[in-house]
Design goal:
heterodimer, A: 312 residues, alpha/beta, Rossmann fold, 7-stranded mixed sheet, 5-stranded mixed sheet, B: 282 residues, 5-stranded parallel sheet, 12% strand, globular
């Protein structure tokens, strides 16, 4: 594997390798090939890359059609347009008939924070999770992105993968085996559990270290597959720590935290705190400002964890 | 016209007449259905399934079969009746239309019955899927064509025009779309709801090769469909002028009322009489 230089580059590298191994792999872009890091793919496989123009709905429809001819199409665009403009086609024409189409939402979360709310995607997990038969993945670092892309291709059925834009320190190395549906326990702990997804995993790990200095042992779980949930790991965490905090760069409504809450409230209700973006339009500004504002950075997570532990 | 051509046309008209009757009887039996929308495409479907398309009802997944997608999925009574008459499934299956756990629901369901290629119903999705299918076929140098029927009300949807752009961009000479130009939709005549004219020029300006015909004149339908695809590096559009509720006079006279409505048992007689007259007079 080469050029795991960033989250999106990791996708770009994986998709090229996939195409080298399997001639059924094709990619589609909606004037989004550079932001999707598909330029190398296009150069190597010009007959298998399809530019569709700024037509996200038709891109997904075309991918559905290509899958019916035996191809394995990967479509990608900036997450807000990928997940929302095209959602009905995803849900109805890919999801319901379980067609083998892979959908990648690039630059989700606060990827373009200075550009304002139009280019900020905080709803994609909630939307995609609600659609039947769509697996939802949110990898935490470069290696996990690379491996998740490969796992998506091997999986028979529709998948949505949410990717960020900002650099992320390495969490996994090449000994990691990514399995769709399996969360990973990154830090053991018995006082409280922090469940995170995507870039929030890095912040959760930093918060773990801050809390450790105060004598608080936080279990940290990377919930890289949000649907289906790794119920076993979540149930064990709830039973053994009795306090769950979830953190994601996503709206609170319907996101990863909601998925965890849906499961726990019906199976093992414990006190929970869900960190994410509340019901408001985020202002434009630097990413650090937004993460601070919503308490999603390490200090914010640590503060919320302390509060959760103090509450009855 | 040659004698054999004349015989063919007569045979196909008789076949279309059977399908028209099936559409009406099916709706009366279950009490519901998009009758008028289905009645405007029976002649087209007959020309496709009994003449133009390379399909084998005994081998519905034959690799090089022509593909058909009913993009205006709500008219599926017509598709189901055509598939039944062509031998894809039996009468017992046909009459599971709209029933519990049926493979023949109110919009086509992929895998629900032999011959139903793609689930449709949400307007515009079907033609978009067809662009992908035609593209995949072209990539692999397959010999089959991809056919679709699109409605004119359906053509309000933006995705139809996104698909039209892409089909021309990718020079999909293996894609043939038939526009069911019945000039009516739910809220009224199309020209009042959202004017689509000049529709022929619109498709031509999008890079399609367009030919027009009377969608209820079998001779004209055959003449045009026999020429399709019209161009090797442009997608083809057959602009079929049709009548919503064709053949059943009380439906075609009041198309808005009959968008989603089945005749009563009492109205069935009148409908069948009207169809008999319509198909004899042609």
């Amino acid at each position: 594997m080469e050029n795991l230089a960033g989250i999106r580059d990791s996708y770009g590298a994986a998709i090229v390798e996939l195409a080298e191994e399997n001639e059924r792999i094709v990619t589609l872009a909606s004037d989004s090939k550079f932001s999707s890091k598909l330029d190398v793919f296009e150069k190597k496989f010009p007959d298998r890359f399809f530019e569709v123009g700024i037509c996200e709905q038709n891109m997904v429809g075309m991918a559905a059609g290509l899958s019916l001819t035996g191809k394995i199409p990967f479509v990608s665009a900036i997450a807000c347009f990928m997940s929302m403009r095209a959602f009905e086609i995803v849900r109805t024409t890919v999801g319901y008939p379980k067609l083998n189409v892979k959908i990648v939402g690039m630059s989700a979360g606060f990827a373009y924070p200075q550009l304002g709310a139009t280019h900020t995607c905080l709803e994609d997990v909630s939307i995609m999770r609600a659609a039947s038969n769509i697996t939802v993945i949110s990898p935490a670092d470069n290696m996990e992105t690379y491996l998740a892309t490969k796992a998506m291709a091997a999986y028979e059925g529709p998948v949505y993968m949410r990717l960020g834009r900002h650099p992320v320190p390495d969490i996994y190395d090449d000994s990691y085996e990514f399995v769709i549906g399996k969360a990973t326990l990154l830090r053991a702990g018995t006082d409280v559990t922090i469940i995170a997804a995507g870039p929030a995993v890095t912040f959760a790990l930093e918060a773990h270290d801050l809390l450790k200095k105060e004598g608080i042992g936080a279990r940290v779980i990377n919930l890289s597959t949000i649907k289906p949930l790794d119920e076993e790991l979540i149930a064990a965490a709830a039973a053994e720590t009795q306090r769950i905090l979830t953190v994601e760069v996503h709206n609170i409504a319907g996101g990863m935290g909601s998925a965890v809450a849906e499961f726990l409230v019906q199976n093992n209700p414990v006190k929970m705190k869900m960190l994410g973006i509340p019901n408001e339009t985020p202002p434009a500004g630097p990413r650090e400002m937004l993460l601070e504002r919503y308490g999603l950075n390490a200090s914010g997570i640590a503060k919320a964890t302390r509060r959760l532990l103090e509450s009855k | 016209m040659s004698e054999s051509r004349d015989k063919l046309i007569k045979k196909l008209k008789a076949q279309a007449y059977q399908i028209q009757q099936d559409i009406v009887k099916l709706a009366v039996d279950i009490g519901e259905g998009h009758c008028a929308s289905a009645l405007s495409i029976a002649d087209i479907l007959t020309a496709l399934y009994f003449h133009r398309m390379n399909v084998d009802p005994k081998n519905p997944n034959m690799e090089n079969r022509d593909r058909f997608v009913l993009s205006k999925g709500h008219a599926c009574q017509a598709l189901y009746a055509a598939l039944y008459r062509a031998g894809f499934f039996d009468r017992e299956k046909l009459y599971t239309f709209l029933g519990p756990n049926t493979g023949l629901p109110g919009h086509p369901l992929r895998g629900g019955a032999p011959g139903v290629e793609v689930s449709t119903g949400s307007l515009g999705h079907g033609i978009s899927v067809c662009v992908g299918m035609a593209l995949g076929a072209k990539m692999d140098k397959k010999k089959y064509n991809v056919f679709a029927i699109v409605g004119d009300g359906e053509s309000n949807e933006g995705i139809v025009w996104e698909a039209a752009l892409a089909a021309a961009h990718y020079k999909l000479g293996n894609l043939i779309v038939i526009l069911d130009r019945n000039r009516h939709q739910c809220d009224g005549p199309s020209e009042n709801v959202m004017n689509l004219d000049p529709v022929k020029e619109k498709w031509e300006s999008f890079g399609w090769e367009v030919k027009t015909c009377d969608g209820h004149n079998m001779a004209e339908l055959l003449e045009v469909l026999d020429q399709a695809p019209f161009c090797c590096d442009k997608p083809s559009l057959v602009l079929a002028e049709t009548v919503k509720g064709h053949g059943v006079d009380f439906m075609s006279d009041n198309a808005i009322a009959w968008h989603y409505r089945a005749p009563s048992k009492e109205e069935l007689e009148k409908a069948l009489d009207s169809l008999a007259a319509a198909y004899d007079c042609q």
